[in-house]
Amino acid sequence: MSGKAAKSIVKHWASALLVVIAIAGTVTAFSLPGFGGPEKVKASGGVVNIPLSKVSDGKARFFRFSDGGKEIAFFVVKAPDGTVKTAFDACDVCFKEKKGYAQDGAFMVCKQCNMKFGTNRIGPHAVGGCNPSYLPSRLAGGNVVISAADLKAGTRYF
User: Fold this and answer.
1) Are 135 and 86 in contact (CB under 8 A)?
2) Short-list 71, 88, 98, CA closest to 133
3) Contact (CB, 8 A) for 151 and 135
4) What letter does residue 44 receive in the DSSP assignment?
5) Tens-digit pLDDT profile for residues 80-134
6) Helices (H) and strands (E) in the chain, counts
7) What is the DSSP string of 25-39?
8) What is the pTM of this model?
9) How many whole angstroms separate alpha carbon 92 and alpha carbon 88?
10) How far, CA to CA in Å, does 132 sit from each of 32, 102, 152?
11) Are 53 and 142 in contact (CB under 8 A)?
12) Quick check: 157 and 96 in contact, CB under 8 A?
């Protein structure tokens, strides 16, 4: 085998190895919480606790809570005004399409009708239309605390 042929084979294998490493890195990244899909959470003592540190950067984090085989989707986001907002990943109008929301900066966007809602406004007084359906929560001990009963109340959306 000539030196030129050997160099070509080494170059080919090096390229193949880089592709394998890139794919492995992507698969690993998308299997981490916060990437590639909602994180599954469970209740303990009747509540779900989500560390504030997970949601302090202003990026919406999506979660799933199981109730008797039914997956209840919700999100937590720190709004630009510094408040932490929680809502079902559904709205009163488009929930039947099961598409939920995506974040666009300081807005949550309905994936069905493309309506935008400022994260500052998510809450008990923003109801109707495609507003993200409010999910009560409180802050305690460095966590966002959501009652399992409140999560179960959103079963109808899913």
Assistant:
1) yes
2) 88
3) yes
4) B
5) 999 999 999 998 788 888 899 999 999 999 999 999 999 999 988 777 677 899 9
6) 2, 11
7) HHHHHHHSTTSSSPE
8) 0.75
9) 10
10) 26, 11, 16
11) yes
12) no
